[in-house]
Amino acid sequence: MKILIIGSGGREHALAWTLSRDSRATKIYAAPGNPGIAEIGTCVPINASNIEEIASFALREHIDLTVVGPEAPLGAGIVDTFRKQKLPIFGPDKSAARIETSKSFAKDLCSRYKIPTPRWETFTDAAVAKRALDRMGPPWVVKADGLASGKGTTVTSERREAETAIQRELEREPRRIVIEEFIDGWEASFTATVSGGRAQWLAPAFQDYKPIFDGDVGPNTGGMGVYAPVLMVTEAIVDKVRRKILDPSVEAMAKENVPFQGVLYLNIIVKHGTEDPRLLEFNARFGDPEAQGIAALVKGGLLTHMREIAENSKRPSLPECASSASVVVVLASKGYPTTPSTGDRITIRKVSQGNVVLFHAGTAIASTGELVTAGGRVLNIVATGPDVESARKDAYSAIGSSVQFPGMQYRRDIGSGQLRRRKLEQIQT
Ligand code: GLY
Questions:
Q1: pTM here?
Q2: Nearest-CA residue for atom 2 of ligand 1
Q3: Residues 357-369 pLDDT 10s
Q4: How far is the CA of 127 from the centre of ligand 1 (A)?
Q5: According to DSSP H, which parts of 137-287 are helical?
Q6: Domains in the chain, start-ordered, CATH in brackets?
Q7: Residues near ligand 1 with C-beta < 6 Å?
Q8: Rounded distance from Cα 149 to ligand 1 centre (Å)
Q9: Which ligand 1 atom is at minimum distance from the Cα of 285?
């Protein structure tokens, strides 16, 4: 089988890696890919947003399965274009991807189908939104309605900051915002796959670490690491997320004539002192870096499962997990998240432990032929094990022995048991 991965980050390297582990995968391509993917496949220099060119490539090369990593091509309709040309593709179409690309669509779905979510209102006028701040009271959660590359949410008790966020987000297309009730609680991310109108959990729930520094200090990033399983995610909570959020959402999408097919990622918040999960956000694709943690966990790769989902199978097989725990540590460049340094030479020694894998995210090959930093999140170290403590020990020991670049920064507390709380600070990634 010939497989094409769309995207260029750590998530896409992890997807390429897990798919390449299946002996039926004869050729892996990525558009545009990265130097890590180039070690296991062929990178084609087509940008992930260039849908027509990607489809022409897939037709020409007789690609058997295309897997879309990031949300932007989904929102731009890559799946619709592929399906029109009978090209097999894993992911939701443009209408279904609205569950991620439009916050107001997602929140409206929750309200109409009684899916628990923090209270919310949508605004298109700055003066009206600012007046609503009094009525809603602090702390405020101001969200851009459309895709904002993770930069669209501000959580603050400072009125001036809330007003600035309203102004800023209303200047961005689609010039609409959501203001949401603040919930003081802990978050977790759940990954399900949906096909034939049914959802299945693909992996245990993860918890991610957004702020740059240990102890959840400093500005927010695209994510500095994740771990699973999460102690607070009890079976009762998983059951409630399934009954009250996952299944009703999938049914609601079908009723609205926008059936979902692909990965449905749920960002859940549980108010402290309760066991009541509420939906904060949906993603219409794998989380990054959750995908890296999942890829390392599943036995034998994800090819059969993804192919069956792309075929909209009613009973797709579910891959088994080879281990119980997974820890992903993101190695970031100097200056990330504000001014990530690029062009710093990276030294990698072969990772010797069988339970540890290194994925490339923001790397490039310089004109000198050297591997260099090319973005904020540079590399991901993933370790699996029987429990989080042993996986985290192996992840951190592999960093020390295998990777180095000037200014490399990473959190030392991924999976250390700390609850991820919502923080009253501006979220800027
Ligand atoms: N890890 C969160 C996300 O991918 O949006």
A1: 0.95
A2: 287
A3: 999 999 999 999 9
A4: 31
A5: 159-170, 235-240, 247-255
A6: 2-99 (3.40.50.20), 119-180 (3.30.1490.20), 185-322 (3.30.470.20), 325-404 (3.90.600.10)
A7: 208, 223, 283, 287-288, 290
A8: 10
A9: 4
